[in-house]
Amino acid sequence: GDGNFPAEFDTGVVEQAPDAVVSLSPALTELAFDLGYGGKLVGVSDFCTDEDGALDGLPNLGTVNAPKTDEILKLSPQVVVAVSPLTSADRKKLEKGGAAVIVLPLAEDLDGLETLYRDLGRVFGGDTDGAQAGKKLYDEQVARLEGIREQVEAAGPFEAAYLRVMPLTLATGDTFPGRMLEEAGFENSASDYTGWVYPEDKAVDLMPQVLFFDEAVGMDAVSGSIIYNTTPAYANAK
Prior knowledge:
37% of the residues lie in helices and 15% in strands. It has seven helices and ten strands. The strands form three sheets. It has a four-stranded parallel beta sheet with strand order 4-3-5-6, sandwiched between helices. Strands 7, 8, 9 and 10 form a four-stranded mixed beta sheet that branches. Strand 3 (21-23), helix 1 (26-34) and strand 4 (41-44) form a beta-alpha-beta unit.
């Protein structure tokens, strides 16, 4: 062969280049498109959302906890990818139907991110070409991050917070987004805390100069919250 397949993973083997893959993870769906393999997806999870129409026509096939296995098997995918394990019954059913079930955990640091990019690349493109596609995308992202860091450090220091869910589910020091804030040159407002929990009694001290927030939160919620509409970030529209 060309050194690409079979590609072996902890949870299964992709025997040959797939032309039909089901993604049960929004993160993996987005990454598949970023890697240039989006055209090989034949179905996605119920949580996959789409800004630009790329997922139009792709069926929603449940979640990792409740996959629509019969509907998945009708599409004859060679591979099903997820970020956490399926139940053994669901996994066996899919494998019996001819699909390799590959679990690729989400990253917890930059090394983990490189592994994730390379491994998802390997699912689609194999050990040589796919791994190279993953490495290339990772290197581009790290270069972007370093460019941001240079700008932030030149103009800063800036304190920043990343809000995932209202009111105080913030990226703490032990989380990947929390670490990414620091990689990007910011001081993380929630770095002293863990588990995405910022203490309510400390909300009055929360004064980031830059606020990142999840799309699901939205600007209206930020504007309407006394926690955030009193911050320098809000005052300066950053």
